[in-house]
Amino acid sequence: MTKMTLGTHPYLLGFDQLERLAERAAKGAEGYPPYNIEHRAPDGFRITLAVAGFAEDDLSLTVEDRQLVIRGRQAEGGDERVFLHRGIAARAFQRSFVLAEGIEVEAAALENGLLHIDLRRVTPHGIVKTIPISRK
What we know:
Layout: H1 16-26, E1 35-40, E2 44-50, E3 59-63, E4 67-72, E5 93-98, E6 103-111, E7 114-121
Antiparallel strand pairs: 1-2, 2-7, 3-4, 4-5, 6-7
């Protein structure tokens, strides 16, 4: 007996992309940097990442194929500091979030070591389309 998946179910046409999105979301569940996700009524969300030590120029945000990708890489410092203890992580990171259809990135701001990314759900207009039937 074969396993029924979203891509092979006869009533769910075109949902094979949903399976790929779920697989992509499950990848890269690394714990750095830590983050929060808030629901902001009525149709908004906020992702907040703790990026202590990163400047605006060290961070980049892109949306690639309905996937929000946040990358951080600090410039190599040529300073001669000698650390007795180094507890603030300075390593590069990449954190990804799969966005549902209709979710758009509205703004991003860096404040007190926290990167805030505001998202908004855009409601599509419901359109009823009548398909004419032709005789062949």
